[in-house]
Amino acid sequence: MTSQDLTFIHLTDTHLYAVPTPGGFKSPDPQRTAQAVIQHINAQPFKFEFVLHTGDVVNDPTDPVRYAEAAALLATLRAPVHTIPGNHDQRDWLRAQFYPHSLTTYHQFEAGGVQFACLDTSVPNKPYGEVGAAQLAWLENICTGGGDQPLVVAMHHHPFKTGSEGMDGLVTLDGLAVHEVLRKAGARLKGVFFGHLHEHVILIRDGITYLSAPSTWFQLLAWPGQTGGFVMDERALPGYNIVTVGADGRLTVRAISVEVGA
Amino acid sequence: MTTPGAPLLTFVHLTDTHLHPDPTFKGKRAWSPRPTAEAVIAHINALPHPVDFVLHTGDLGNDPLRAEHYIALRDVVFSPLRPPLYVIPGNHDHRVWLSAAFHPQHERPYYNFEVNGVQVVCLDTSLPYQPFGEIESEQMAWLEAICAAESHQPLIVALHHHPLSLHAEAMDSIGLRGGEALHQTLLRARYRLKCVLFGHIHEGVTMVRDGIVYASTFSTWYQSRTWHGQTGDFAKADLHHPGYTIVTLTADGGVMLKPVRVLTK
Questions:
Q1: What distance in Å separates the CA atoms of residue A236 and residue B48, rounded to the nearest whole number?
Q2: Is A219 on the interface with B (CB under 8 A)?
Q3: Which of A52, A87, A197, A217 is the most exposed place for a label (fewest CB within 10 A)?
Q4: CA dihedral B112, B116, B117, B119 (to 10 degrees)
């Protein structure tokens, strides 16, 4: 067990350097919305150890320099940033910029006595996710070891379908296999944080809690039974999660919305 | 293998409307709770999917002075709400008047009901004229019997006060007393308990303890704000957009909570 409480920030889907399409689906400027969220986080009256970014850091980059630029922008946060790849990232460039010490695009780190397993669910040039056998074996090794050290898992794609046709096609294809492996961690596993949906949801299954954060860019409107393509939720706000892993074994997550000024 | 279970039940978790029979009432705030509550009700009515019921976790009224005030709120404010409404008392409610107006079929302010095979347990944590909450012994015995029962029915539990510490001084001073005993009781039903829903804190917080998820939703009036290690008085949020949470249970045992903010301007 940890001896003290650990607080970190979960944000996701910054989609930096995406070209806004005025009047349309992707009308906000992603750098501007990301900066508004960063300012809001930096103004919080408490200490946080780091920021966890669950992917789609950069939107479809064609040059690795975009990750150096993204790292500079995220360095304006007053705590270090940990990232994982999303479907819009180039995972090798992202790894080289943010965690070059790791030989794989999935990685782990430790903070405040808590183990963080950061999955790479991205599949090159595909919008859906997949973890694959090698990474699943790596995850299983983590979930079956570690004594009683608290464990938090990060992944970009949602682990299972949420009943909305458009997003169901972009799920982690082997998400239920991931879920079965995560069950082996038992009470060590405090929560799983993800992005990709561009909406804030909490999924609960077999005692495991999966939490997404809103995108810092734009939000989608989805519901179980929804058919057809994606619908932008024009009135939903960007945001992030404030997460505390308590020394008492509890997880506390506060959902924060941010209004981006005109 | 990733096919989701069909939705078994979809309902809305709504809380802390703080309504007053006088529609211009503002209390200590700069705006009335009435228009934002009406906007939320209209938003729920316009949802693009079926809603089986609405569960209101208390502080429906803001210190009403007469039993008829609840009748008026029921008939004026809540009558446009399309799904059936279930309510529990908060610290600003009068539990007997609230119960009489909204669920006269139940003899007590705490009760349970069943929809689509899901059991919903509605607790009364209110104490007359006290801001903090407690589950009195007779009710606790009733809850213990439910949690100890041999059942495979999915279970939802609702209460007004936050049952776990937020590590925030002012808010924790008005939380549920005896939250530990409640948690130990709920652990007995852990295999079928889908989530515990609460209000009171005017903030969207999800807490997980021993695999049990406790989730609050936003007030429809104004938002408050806590942080881990907060000392001193209550803090106001920087955004007061009202909200609610859509709860979906699927046939394969899954739960999805979707907090929604309603932008009224």
A1: 16
A2: no
A3: A87
A4: -20
Structural domain tally of chain A? 1
Is there a domain that residue A262 lies in?
no
CATH label of the domain that carries residue A73: 3.60.21.10
Domain hosting residue A65, numbered range = 6-257
Q: Does the structure show a pLDDT above 90 at A248? A: yes
The single-letter code of the amino acid at A58 is V
Q: How far is A82 from chain B (nearest CA, A)?
A: 22
Nearest Cα neighbor of B32 from B42, B45, B43, B22 is B22
Q: Which chain A residue shows the shortest CA-CA distance from B9?
A: A224
CA distance A28 to A20: 6
Residue A43: exposed, middle, or buried by beta-carbon count in 10 A (0-12, 13-18, 19+)? Answer: exposed
Q: In degrees rounded to 5, what are phi and psi of residue A26?
A: -115, 50
Distances (CA, A) of B204 to A50, B226, B240, B257: 22, 10, 12, 11
The answer to whether residues A114 and A209 touch, using CB atoms and an 8 Å cutoff, is no
Tell me the C-alpha distance between B125 and B106, whole Å.
16
Q: How far is B195 from chain A (nearest CA, A)?
A: 9
Domain B7-261 has CATH 3.60.21.10: yes
Instruction: List chain B pLDDT tens, one digit each, 265 residues.
Output: 345 567 899 999 999 999 999 999 999 899 999 999 999 999 999 999 999 999 999 999 999 889 999 999 999 999 999 999 999 999 999 999 999 999 999 999 999 999 999 999 999 999 999 999 999 999 999 999 999 999 999 999 999 999 999 999 999 999 999 999 999 999 999 999 999 999 999 999 999 999 999 999 999 999 999 999 999 999 999 999 999 999 999 988 999 999 999 987 6
CB B49 within 8 A of CB B156: no
Chain B: give the shortest CA distance to residue A209, in Å: 8
Whose CA is closest to A51, among A84, A91, A88?
A84
| DSSP H or E run through B156 | strand B155-158
- CB contact (8 A) between residue B211 and residue A244: no
Burial environment of residue B196 by CB neighbours within 10 A (0 to 12, 13 to 18, 19 or more): buried
A46 in contact with chain B, both atoms CB, cutoff 8 A: yes
Mean pLDDT of A166-185: 97
Residue A1 lies in a domain: no
- A148 at interface of B, judged by CB pairs closer than 8 A: no
- Whether A100 is covered by a domain: the verdict is yes
Q: With respect to residue A165, please indicate whether it lies within any of the assigned structural domains.
A: yes
